[in-house]
Amino acid sequence: MASRSNGRILHGFGLLAVFAVAIFPVYWMVSSSFKTQTDLLASPPVWLFTPTLGNYAEVFADQKVTSAVVNSLIVAVFSTALAVVLGTPAAFALARYDFRGKSDLWFWFISNRFISPIALALPIYILAQGLGLLDTHLVLILVYITFILPIVVWICTDQFRSIPKELEEAARLEGASQFDIFWRIYLPLGLPGIAVSAIFGFIFSWNELLYALVLTRRDVQTAPVVATSFMSGYELPWGKIMATGTVIVLPVTIFALLVSRHMVRGLTMGATK
Amino acid sequence: MSFLRLQGIQKRYGPVSVINGVDIAAEAGEFVVFVGPSGCGKSTLLRMIAGLEEVTSGQVFIDGQDVTGTEPAKRQVSMVFQSYALFPHMSVRDNIAFGLKMSKVPKSEIDRQVAEAARILQMENLLDRRPRQLSGGQRQRVAIGRAIVRHPKLFLFDEPLSNLDAELRSQMRVEIARLHRDLGVTMVYVTHDQVEAMTLADRIVVLRGGKVEQIGSPQTLYDRPVNTFVAGFIGSPKMNFVAATLTGRDARTVTVAHSSLATPVRIALRDDAQTKGPSVGDTVTLGLRPEHLVLGDGPNRMILTADIVESLGGSTLIYGQTKARETMILEAPGRRTLTKGETLSVGFDAAQAYLFDATGQAI
Lengths: 273, 363
Known about the structure:
The structure holds two protein chains of two kinds.
Chain A (H helix, E strand, L loop, with lengths): L1 H31 L4 H5 L12 H8 L1 H34 L5 H10 L5 H14 L6 H25 L3 H9 L4 H12 L1 H17 L2 H6 L7 H7 L8 H23 L13
Helix pairs in contact in A: 1-13, 3-13, 4-7, 4-10, 4-12, 7-10, 8-9, 10-13, 12-13
Chain B lengths: L3 E10 L2 E11 L4 E5 L6 H9 L6 E6 L2 E2 L10 E4 L11 H11 L4 H14 L15 H13 L5 E5 L7 H18 L2 E6 L2 H7 L2 E6 L2 E6 L1 H6 L4 H6 L6 E10 L3 E5 L7 E4 L14 E6 L5 E2 L4 E12 L3 E7 L5 E7 L9 E6 L4 E4 L7
Parallel strand pairs in B: 3-8, 3-9, 6-7, 7-8
Antiparallel strand pairs in B: 1-2, 1-4, 4-5, 9-10, 11-12, 11-14, 12-13, 14-20, 15-19, 16-17, 16-19, 17-18
């Protein structure tokens, strides 16, 4: 008994340690965003301080930050939505049909994620310049789709494969077309997988820095680009950087919380047996 | 002309042949059961009637029309799956209405038909539930409801009761029989359970290895099985088989001897076996049904050594061994207590004995 409860205590401490390591940077960012510059630079660091909203006032007064958040939202929402619209029918076909080159196509989708993003940065820059797309929302949306699409296809193919084939057969006997089967059976039942891939896609688009830095100049700078742009000059405005960071983290956290309830598996429970 | 006709049906998956030339016909309103051990091709055959599986060669006719290459939805058949195949994200009402919606039936008509199906299957109070909130029997009923509303020409059942417990299974069996009587529609039912086959069928098709072994009414299959396979498959507990020797024959009867038989037994030959069949000295298989064996009584006697006794409450299954160490089962009414090794005298009527030649064909 004693060794079992000791084990539990150890287990609890272990979990707490991992949690602390994971959450501490977030805590530091959020708490620092409420500190004055003096508290921020204090050595040793202060743990108890009088909170101030000054940093947030400064952030929201800065046109650059608010427009960057809007830009990020536009790019993330459209790239995620389009990747889901394009990826789910592809996943349906890969999960349910046999056709020539199916496994090659499947591998091709995955292999898109093998390439280091930096390797493609220059070719994509030249391409975007040639097409006159530099510093537009469209170029970021297009580039992000190429990154998110494999994730959507990947996760949703797996999800669709787990749907019992009898459901499709029953629907076929009832007169459902291929589109009906996809729209009325596979999409609703595949919602957990679609939700997970949408979260991944949104987070990727939201956080992406490299391409946003390379392909945008002034008009469509996204939030991560603007946040890093503060890290130049003589004196670093830590409070503003931390407040910007907190503002950037909020939408993606809310989105993940909203969508996560669809991630609950077991929606297919009761279909068979 | 038959309502459902399968003509020279073959099915191959690459080099593997699973259905080897099957010809079956069913009349309108008939209840046909495909029965056989797993892997005999009974479900594949059903799926080919539904159109879910392509036919390698041969033709499928429904109501006089060749539907071999027709889309499943256009065959006007409904199927109840072993796994029910209910749509888990839809209510019972939407599950039942699904096919009607696909056929663009007006909403008022859909509501009327769903209510009618719910009334027939006594599930009016379940219409707004999701499949996961239903018990196994209720799910099965919804699956049947979904099949009913489309007024199909043909009902197909693929082992619909095998996921249910024993009590529910017999209850649903009665419901399906009642449904067939009330609707009068042709039904094809697949099962590996010979009790379901015997109780439900107008006609049974016994399949083995992708071939039809015998087609006939349950009574015919019980009384006159064409071979040891059908004889062993129909009837529970299964028929006892012992290797006997033919010691005499005349035009209509043969005499067989066995080391456990007190005296040789004279058995009448089937009409078709009277001109051919085995000759004196050949080994034949004597088949005796457990329910036809009587402890300590009967015109013909067999001596067995008692082994195990299973009490079923109302009756008792007694396992004994012949002198040649063949296991025999006999079903005795009431309760019996026997000790292992006890000698049993078992009687039977020669008219209820079955005889098969060395290849297993009935003679």
